[in-house]
Amino acid sequence: MRLVLASTSPRRRDLLARLGIEPARVASPEIDETPLPREVPRAYVLRLAEAKARAVDRAEGEIVLAGDTTIALGRRILGKAEDEAELRRMLALLSGRRHHCLTAVCVVDTTGKARSRLSDTIVAFKPLTATEIDSYVATGEGLGKAGGYAIQGRAEAFVRFLSGSHSGVIGLPLFETRALLIAAGADLG
Questions:
Q1: Which residue, among 118, 173, 123, 117, has the nearest Cα to 147 in the 3D structure?
Q2: Which pTM was predicted?
Q3: Is 187 a catalytic residue?
Q4: How does residue 1 score in pLDDT terms, banded at 50, 70 and 90?
Q5: pLDDT tens-digit profile of 5-25?
Q6: Is 153 in contact with 169 (CB distance < 8 Å)?
Q7: How far is 36 from 17, CA to CA, in rounded Å?
Q8: Interatomic CA distance for residues 72 and 146, integer angstroms
């Protein structure tokens, strides 16, 4: 199997390594990540994961793997925090509340058939003080991350409850990813 990882995220590459997989190559998919009007979070992440997988050229014999993660607060999609003001706003919204971390994975097999799975993890943050938010923002860790936080970093200390896939919150749910790769013909033992 020649696997193409349609993501430049070092976290996704590290998570694949936990499955004993090293991609043959890594490609950066260029797609518009703007939610469609009235698009719900689940449909949004599934659409983006497949769009990313399809946006990467696939040579004969290659399997393409892509993923997308978003934070859903009700029907609201919290994408990637682009600046400190947006990061503060997101953390204030998540403070003391439950939210869903949705990660969709899409695998396009050697025949061009796409298969997708969705990981839905419930995460509850403790109530955050202004000082905690300020300290976290100062680290820069949440910039460019869905919902403005990285659970594999300092934000894990904010999590009082998690139900679902920890690796899915990081960005690639390993159970779903492994199942999709096997369905696509990968021999993972």
A1: 123
A2: 0.94
A3: no
A4: confident
A5: 999 899 999 999 999 999 999
A6: no
A7: 34
A8: 10
